[in-house]
Amino acid sequence: MISFFTFTFLKLCFKCLLDFWCNQNSLQFIQKNILSCCVLFSLKQSNQTTAYPSVYSSWLTNLYYFSVFLASLSSNIVKKKKKRAPSVLLVFLLEGAEMVRGKTQMRRIENAASRQVTFFKRRNGLLKKAFELSVLCDAEVALIIFSPRGKLYEFASSSMQETIERYMRHTKDNRTTPTEQNMQHLRTESANMVKKIELLQVSRRKLLGECLGSCTVEELQQIQQQLERSVSRVRARKTQVFKEQIEQLKEKVSLEAEQSQ
Q1: Of 121, 210, 222, 254, which has the most beta carbons under 10 Å away?
Q2: What whole-number distance in Å separates Cα of residue 222 and Cα of residue 228?
Q3: Which positions make up the signal peptide (predicted)?
């Protein structure tokens, strides 16, 4: 299919150029070829272009630009014969072939040969970009590629082994799962609670008059003040309870007196 389109395209180009150069029925022939090119370009929408989409897209787009160029050329052909038209047309077609490219779809290439060619092209481009990044930005770059057939391609700005070891150390330091983080938090909280319990137990024993041999005068003074405050609170609570009991007894006596009457 590619050879058919290539042959047809070149045939139309050179026949039109020859006819234009000889100035024989130029206008009529160009108009016919414009129609032929438009018909060929309409094949772009058919399913026959699925095998090599980028190749067909490039050639068919060239046919389209060629037809547009012929249309503009046909309007000026009667006015003046330009001997440099063939070179202009060839330059135009060559530039169109370089500038117009089909859009590559981001999916797996089914054709094995096309896939292999694309791999080698993209691989070389990727290796070049990695080299440029390491040189321009003074970055440490390591690139590892395995082809579909399992062949290894690599690039390292310094040492591949040292870069991999550095990467492993970095990932090991930052490789903490949520479960590990929760466990570490629980361990820290547990250690803090144990320390608080030990301090409370020591304080309780001191308030009970135990383990006072190692206490200084200031610590003993603080313990005495705490005990006095505790005794004061106990006495206040005791007085309040007595008052509540007296009030309850008064209410009980008044109820019994009312019932006896």
Answers
A1: 222
A2: 10
A3: 1-15
What are the residues whose beta carbons fall under 8 Å from the beta carbon of 118, sequence distance 6 or more? 109
CA–CA separation, 1 and 43 (whole Å): 12
The residues, any chain, with a CB within 8 Å of residue 85's CB and separated by 6 or more, are 17, 20, 21, 73
Percent of the residues in the chain that have a pLDDT greater than 90, as a whole number: 26
End-to-end CA distance of the chain: 126
Q: For residues 169 and 186, what is the distance between their CA atoms, to the nearest angstrom?
A: 26
Lowest mean pLDDT among 69-83, 132-146, 200-214: 69-83
30's enclosing H/E stretch is: helix 26-42
Asked whether the beta carbons of 128 and 115 are under 8 A apart, the reply is no
On whether the CB atoms of residues 118 and 109 are closer than 8 A, the answer is yes
Is 38's pLDDT higher than 70?
Answer: no
Domain ranges of the chain: 113-174, 177-214, 216-260
Res 152 pLDDT > 50: yes
81 vs 72, which has greater pLDDT?
72
Q: How far is CA 90 from CA 5, 17, 86, in A?
A: 18, 10, 6
Partner residues linked to 155 by β-bridges: 143
Predicted TM-score (pTM) of the model is 0.34
Chain segment 44-75, per-residue pLDDT in tens: 444 444 444 444 455 555 555 555 565 555 55
Class of domain 113-174: alpha beta
Predicted confidence (pLDDT) at residue 113 exceeds the cutoff of 80 = yes
Beta carbons within 8 Å of 83's beta carbon, 6+ residues apart: 21
In the DSSP assignment, the letter for residue 156 is E
Q: What is the dihedral of CA 146, 150, 155, 158, to 10 degrees?
A: 110
